[in-house]
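seq as requested:
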Amino acid sequence: MTTFRRLLSYLKYEIRPFVLGLFLLLVSTIATLTGPIIAKYLIDKIITPMEQTHVFELGTLLQGVGLYFIVTGVGYLCVYLNRVVMKNLSNRIAKRLRDEVFEHVQTLPISYFDHLPAGKVVSRITSDTESVRANFYVTGISTLLSTIVTLIGVYIAIFMLHAGLAAAFLVLIPVMFLWQKTIAQLQRKLFSQSRELYSQLSGQLNESIQGAVIVQAFQQEETIVEEYEEKNKEWARVGRGELRLDAFFSWSLVGLLRNITLFCIIYFFSMQFIGGSLGISAGLLYAFIDYVNRIYEPIQTFMNIVSGLQQSMAAGDRVFELMDTPSEESGEELFTFDEGRIEFKDVSFAYTPGVPVLKHLNFMVEPGQTVAFVGHTGSGKSSIMNLLFRFYDPTNGAILIDGKNTRDFNRRSVRSEMGIVL
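struct tokens:
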């Protein structure tokens, strides 16, 4: 399943507010798109006849203007309510996503964290989920739905006004689709690089702060600063590429098409008027220009948030990559001990394949016996404890407690029977 579909699947947990948001969006779209129709009626049926007859009917005019403001006000009220509903929805989904990620992290094997800085994990739980919330659920989904509903509504209204001209405007849809697809392909790569560099920066910053004593003890301050500045410079370079791409693609084509379309409309209506067409009026021209602007407004808005949507996709990739990491395997059978006899039987172990830490280790600890492991750093003392608590499993051999192989039992139940001081 793609990242986009997986993120969409979380809407099933908030189906009622999502349906309410769709309803409010539909009402607001109908209300706002009714405005130009009312304005056309005012211009053609009230204002123009007044100019021709020189009879000023204030009551009729005020009724029409009042209706226009009421309909428009209802539309904006529904827009406001829709945003409130969708933002609350996005916050609840983001909380669920963070909870799921954090809960899954608790089930990961210790080996997962051997080569992954804590800052990277924190970045995925906090920063990446926040990017998904802000750029996908708050703005992305709302804007995408608003764009689709508005475009459908505008095209219906234009077809009602002039079917032939509306059919010509349908050419814009595949053009904008291809343009957006091109943007998405280019931006997705940049945003993936940006999120990865940000994660590396967070990890490097976290390690340098936690290890400040060691850094200063070995006088490595300048080296740490140089490494951070180099990584920060690379992140800034990718960020500049994102900005240039976003600035060019989000405005250039949309603005150009808007101006070309307006020119074509004015030219078409001018030729119709010169040709003596009886169906041309000032109200019709106003309504067409208004609807054309309403076509490009949601498209422009959507193009502006494409970069954020791609950021959320890149962040979602990283979040789901973490969530798809297999959890720590554990047997179903619960472990209980009788006496507590511990035996390491021909145990070999390596954190990294080909680099053994323990080789063919054999020893037994009797119940009640006190044993101390003494040796140089890296000799395997901590590794013995890691194996005993099943933070890792031996590459060869077996660890027995009361003659039972710990591999055959649930990890948590094995650990629950022992105590450790770190």
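The mean pLDDT is 81.
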